[in-house]
Amino acid sequence: MAGLRERKKEQTKRRITAVALELFAERGFDAVTVSEIAEAAGVAKATLFTYFPSKESLALQGVGQENLAEIVARRSPRALPAPGAAGPL
Asked: What is the rounded radius of gyration, in angstroms, for the C-alpha atoms of the chain?
């Protein structure tokens, strides 16, 4: 059985994930900032980065392919590289 600390860490991670996915579904991935996710989840931005190294890793946490495709489809066209252009490395 996990201790209290481990359970609280898991609850925090789940809360951050749930809030982020809700915001992504409502407004689209590119329209949501990490600061907004942290504030809505009731944690500091540094705490969010303790659990997730990037916004992208947060979006992929527990997301099935159908949901991921929906999030990608909602990205604004200006956020996508031009055809033939190299994306960010």
From this structure: 15
Cα distances from 20 to residues 4, 43, 83, 88, in angstroms, run 24, 12, 29, 23
Q: pLDDT higher for 48 or 71?
A: 48
d(CA 11, CA 14): 5
Specify the amino acid at residue 20: A
| The pLDDT value given to residue 79 | 55
Sign of CA dihedral 22, 25, 26, 30: positive
Q: Write down the pTM of the prediction.
A: 0.67
Which residues make Cβ contacts (< 8 Å) with residue 17, sequence separation at least 6? 58, 61, 62
What are the tokens at 83? 């055809």
